Amino acid sequence: MAHKNAGLAVATVLVAGPALVALIPMAAAPALVAMTEHFGANADSQFFSQIVMTLPAVMLILCAPLAGWASGRIGQRAVLLASLALYIVGGAGVMLIDSNLPLIALRLILGIAGGGLLTTCLALIGDHFLGLARERLLGYATSAASLLAGLALIYGGRLVDMGGWQAPFALYLLAIPVLLLALFVIKDRPRDDATGATGARLSGTGHLRKVWGYFALLILLTLGMFTPAIQAGFVLSDRGIGSAETIFTIVAATSFVAMGSAWAFGHLRRWISIRGFLVIDALSMGVGILLIGMGSSTGMILAGCCIVGVGAGMSEPAIASLLFHRLPPVAHAMAMGLIVSAINAGQFINPIVFEPLRRMLGAGGSFVVVGTLFGVATLILLQIKDREPAAAADPQTA
């Protein structure tokens, strides 16, 4: 069956979906300190607020592969629309509650929605676009996610200063126009290899076993990617910076640099192999995290956040592109679900990794240890034989 790249309206929805998922932790991030003060009597201060921020990742980890499976059964369009509806309820619903148990319940619902939303958007990119058009759209999706995450950090901090810890959760209402557009433009694309045969599905699952190492690498890269958003605010607070808006304006530099590097991914793909991107990702995160931890001024911490952003923007599109190339189409939806699980596993374990390190070594020492870990990962990646050439020009099909 001939393949024709889909149009702008479809691309808009598929780029907006990952951007909305980026809001799941980032809209809550500016509320961390205020949330700590609000729930301090019922929780262990900083750790509770960090877990609330990353709690949706638990459901994302569990539900993203299920969303990939369900997409093959009932269609990706149905999963996408249901996910957008749940996203609005689980995200904006926090504005209507004021206690910890409903907050936890809504964050879990939001995680379910995010797992389905990101999985289906990535898989639909693979279904509706080919070659460099697909590579660029993967980069654009991450770029839009980084832009919205950065704006959420800046304006979310302002909302906290103006309206309290619940105010940034209004940002989740941005899903309403995306849902309305998706209702009209998103269709399931029939695939010759997706006939529903059990053998074909099992074959796709078997292919996933051959690429498990890339999912593990993505967990590590995501741990680094979220380090500025989850941890740098407390470092800056230790340096005497108290305003939520100021803290998260500095932290937002990660997202804005990531926006640029993600946008550049599809254009640089002609000349740089996937392994080359992964080396750049690990190296930039290691250097940036070390600089944040060892920084003696807000300028050095800002520079560290920017350097982390270089790798943060290219990690997800690089891994997704590699899997699209290495796996048959029948395995794409499940692979994208596992990518979402890996991304959110890295996000969720970030405070779990940093908390004991901070207790033993202090904030700066914890950053040095994690930064050194990325240095080791960079050396390992340099030793791996490069089997992925730079991408060729996209052959246009109709």
Report on this model:
The chain has about 400 residues and is mostly helical. It is built from 15 helices and no strands. Mean pLDDT is about 80; it is low at about 195-205 and about 390-398.
CATH top-level class: Mainly Alpha
Q: What is the helix/strand order? A: HHHHHHHHHHHHHHH
For the report, how would you describe the main beta sheet?
none
CATH architectural group = Up-down Bundle
Which regions have little confidence, pLDDT < 50, spanning 5+ residues?
A: 193-203, 392-398
Number of domains: 1
Radius of gyration: 20 Å
Q: How many β-strands, per DSSP?
A: 0
Q: Give the class from helix and strand content and strand pairing.
A: mainly alpha
Helix content: over 70%
- Describe the global form: globular
Arithmetic mean pLDDT: 82
> Which percent range describes the beta-strand content?
under 5%
The number of helices is 15
Distance from first to last alpha carbon: 10 Å
Give the CATH topology: Growth Hormone, Chain: A
CATH superfamily: MFS general substrate transporter like domains
